[in-house]
Amino acid sequence: MEIIKCVDVVKNYTNKKITTYVLKNINIIINRGEFCAVTGPSGSGKTTLLYVMSGLEKCTSGSVEIFKKPLSLFSSKETAEIRKRRIGFVFQFYNLLPNLTVYENILLAKIISDNKEGDIAAALAVVGMEERKKHFPSQLSGGEQQRVALARAIINDPEIIFADEPTGNLDMAGGIVIMDLLKKLNNDYQKTIILVTHSEDNLKYCNRHIKLLDGRIIGDEKTGF
Ligand SMILES: Nc1ncnc2c1ncn2[C@@H]1O[C@H](COP(=O)(O)OP(=O)(O)OP(=O)(O)O)[C@@H](O)[C@H]1O
Ligand SMILES: [Mg+2]
To answer: Measuring CA to CA, how many Å separate 17 from each of 10, 14, 20?
Structure first.
């Protein structure tokens, strides 16, 4: 069942009369339950594609449907609601708030989403960070910070997790922990995962591999197991 559909998606950025043509006629259907890797050289449009698919950025032309409805038909309130409750984002540089503890960082995501049910202890247990809940981000390793960022992404029980190079700043062991967690979220919690990665090693966790080059899809194949 399709969960995201991009039809003839074009994305340009125009700043000070200079237009950058980033995504050029992208057509993709992402199905519920997929674990999809997106790869491509730096500047090929991977992050932009995640932003457009998740509604963080509007496309210049074409259409993006999420949960079977065109983003253009969502009110700004509905778009905000989707961002808060139905999708989760994991960024390359963790983006944790430095003055809040691990627990508070996740609590904040819960409060922003007006989520009464989210179980912070359970989210921390999923990523194995219960013992560090009173630590501040600066007191954690990079891999640990990324695990907290993942706990924050799942606290609102989203259907789709977008992860933009979540292992890019980690050593091999740290990267494996994050990839194993994403796999668990995909297998055991039925999350749809869209992962941007530069690492060939990560492809084996995924069941689909989309290759971007210069804003176009040049490959889309089933992979892994
Ligand atoms: N807000 C913006 N304004 C203008 N140009 C932008 C903007 N955001 C991205 N771009 C341009 O779009 C192109 C694609 O950027 P994007 O961040 O999607 O690449 P990427 O594939 O994620 O690269 P990387 O692997 O380095 O993260 C780049 O050439 C970038 O300069
Ligand atoms: Mg990027």
So the answer is: 18, 6, 10
- Domain segments of the chain: what residues? 2-222
In angstroms, what is the span from residue 114 Cα to ligand 1's centroid?
32
CATH number for the segment(s) 2-222: 3.40.50.300
Tokens of 207: 């069941």
How far apart, in Å, are the Cα atoms of 113 and each of 54, 116, 130, 190?
16, 9, 22, 21
Cβ pair 90, 166 in contact under 8 A? yes
* Centre of ligand 2 from the C-alpha of residue 131, in Å: 32
Please tell me the distance from the alpha carbon of residue 199 to that of residue 123, in angstroms, as a whole number.
26
Residue 175 is which amino acid?
G
User: What residue's CA is closest to ligand 1, atom 18?
Assistant: 45
Q: What is the pLDDT of residues 51-103, one digit of tens each?
A: 999 998 999 999 999 999 999 999 989 988 898 899 999 988 888 999 999 99
Does residue 179 contact residue 157 with C-beta atoms inside 8 Å?
no
